Amino acid sequence: MVDGADRRAGREAALSVSGVFQGSLDIAAARDLARRFLADVQAVHGLPVRESTTDIVQLVVSELMTNADKYAPGASLLALDAASGAIEVSVWDSNPTPPAILPPDPARIGQHGLEIVIRLARGFTVHRTPLGKRITATIALTDDPMVSGV
C-alpha cells in the first residue's frame, strides 16, 4: 500500500510503503515491494526516478534485509519513504547491536554488503530503538552515485 502522507513529526508529506518480512525467502518479496513502489512513485505520482535508482534501491533492500535475517531473530520491518528527491530505505530488526562496518579490504572475501550500501547512499544511519535497531540508507532518486562519485 502506498500512503501519500508521512505522519512523523517534522516531516513533509512523503509517499510511503512498508512491509513485514521474515526469513530468507522474503528477501525477494522485499525487493519486489521496492521495485513496485518506485514504479508507482514515477508512474502514479510523477516523481522522476532513474532506472539505475531502482536497481540500487533493490540492492540496498537486499543487503539490509539479508543482514537483518542473518543477525536478528524474528521478523523485520521494511519502510520506504520517497520525498525531497530521495528515497529512505529503513529496516527495523530485533537486534540492538549496531552492524560492524568494516573498512574496505579488497582481499577480504565476503562481508562487503554494508560497505557497498554506504558507498551508494547519500546518507546512512543506525539508531537503537527500544526493541532493537533501525538502519536507514537514503538514496537519491535521480543522481547516479556510480557516475557522480557521491
Automatic annotation (TrEMBL):
Under CDD domains, the record lists: HATPase_RsbW-like
Q: Which domain of life is it from?
A: Bacteria
Q: Where are the transmembrane segments?
A: none
Q: Which GO terms describe its molecular function?
A: ATP binding
Q: Name the InterPro entries on file.
A: Anti-sigma-factor_SerPK (IPR050267), HATPase_C_sf (IPR036890), HATPase_dom (IPR003594)
Entry keyword set: ATP-binding, Kinase, Nucleotide-binding, Serine/threonine-protein kinase, Transferase
Span of domain Histidine kinase/HSP90-like ATPase:
32-138
Q: Name one Pfam family in it.
A: HATPase_c_2
Q: Which PANTHER family match?
A: ANTI-SIGMA-F FACTOR RSBW (PTHR35526:SF3), ANTI-SIGMA-F FACTOR RSBW-RELATED (PTHR35526)
Task: From the Swiss-Prot or TrEMBL record, give the protein name.
Answer: ATP-binding protein
Organism listed in the record: Streptomyces cinereoruber
